[in-house]
Amino acid sequence: MEKDYRILQLLPSLDSQQSLNRLIEICYKVALNVLRFNYKKVHNIILRDELSLDDVAIDSIASLFLSDENGKFTTITSAFNSWQPPIKTEDDALYFLNKLIQKRVEQHISFILRESDPIFSKIMDSANYLIKKHDYKKASYLGTIYIINSDHNELGGKNIPIDEFEKLPPELFTDKIKLFSNLFNYISNDTDYSSAIPFNALIYKLKELNIALYKVSESTEEQSETFEINTVINLAVENTFKKLNETYLTKGKLSEEEVKIFRRTIKDMAEDLKDGGVNPGLYKYLSVHFDGLTEECYKQKYHNILEYLSKLLKQNIADQLME
What's the angle, vertex CA 145, arms to CA 20 and CA 56, rounded to 5? Predict the structure, then answer.
């Protein structure tokens, strides 16, 4: 990327539409590069929701350019003015902008992962609780949030790639009390990487291994009973089946054969949610079990039903996780 951005000239002159458009363009390009670097995290969501990397990049930076009641873009200018050490050169400004956008992209990735996957969201909450309890901290680097020891001020050295982290021995993840210390020790002593744990990759790994994390009690901040992913999924599926029967079979909106097809489809969706989120296209889920189903017929007769049941399944999973 070229370095002649003139960010120091643009930031004080955002009242000018030309300056504003130029800064938005720069931020968009940075966000797009960060997303390309992290494409593995978001490709399922992008495919499922028929989004593009452009859409996600724009959404990631949108909040930076919300104006206040006086028409000023205080979010980005305040971040610029409070940056330490103070920004004096174009290189400083570009570094600031990259760090700011990387953080925003990672936050947006976490947001869409939470929205699309209630199990991911619950495990993330539990992990955040453990981070706070053990006085660790999170830091962002190239659009990836890492967990680090609190006595480290920032990330340094060579961080473990996501694909390497995914290959770590499963036994490192089974002791909930020593989860972070085990991972820090192994990465430091048994690999060539710095002692930093990629946050979202950790959540995926815990989910993949079907680790029963502790629930967090908001009132006492103490951890209570555990949950097991298969149990949560099975109960959510049964509750969704119940609603399917009550709303569509009993009232004659679907035939018994159609309900059987929907039940098989819901099971497929639940399995994919357990493994990392619903795959693209609800039509494809249904058509696997429905011979000869055209997209036109699906849109006219079944789309609204399956979309409702898909949302209900996610809500049922979220409800089970909160019990």
Answer: 45
pLDDT confidence of residue 248: 94
- Can you spell out the DSSP letters for 107-164? HHHHHHHHHH-HHHHHHHHHHHHHHHHTT-EEEEETTEEEEE-TT--S--S-PPPHHH
Distance from C-alpha of 173 to C-alpha of 176, rounded to nearest angstrom: 7
Amino acid at 297: C
For residue 64, which of 53, 52, 78, 51 has the smallest C-alpha distance?
A: 78
Distances (CA, A) of 150 to 133, 146, 160, 165: 12, 12, 18, 21
Place of tokens 């049922």: 316
Answer whether residue 267 is part of any domain. Answer: yes
pLDDT of 61-91, one tens digit each? 999 998 888 888 999 999 999 888 899 999 8
Domain boundary residue, one of 184, 200, 226: 226
The whole-number pLDDT of residue 52 equals: 78
Residues whose CB falls within 8 Å of the CB of residue 288, separated by 6 or more in sequence, listed in order: 265, 268
Q: Would you place residue 280 in the very low, low, confident or very high pLDDT band (cuts 50, 70, 90)?
A: low
Last residue of a domain, one of 60, 95, 115: 115
Q: Tell me, yes or no, whether 202 lies in a domain.
A: yes
List the domain range (segments joined by +) for residue 173. Answer: 119-226
Q: Classify residue 273 by its DSSP letter.
A: H
Which letter does DSSP use for residue 63 in this model? G
Segment 227-263, tens digit of pLDDT: 567 788 889 999 999 999 999 999 999 999 999 999 9
Q: Where does the pLDDT of residue 116 fall: very low under 50, low under 70, confident under 90, or very high at 90 and above?
A: confident
Q: Are residues 101 and 87 in the same domain?
A: yes
d(CA 134, CA 149): 9
Is 1 part of any domain? no
> Residue 42: pLDDT above 90?
no
Of 197, 185, 228, 193, nearest in space to 130 by CA: 197
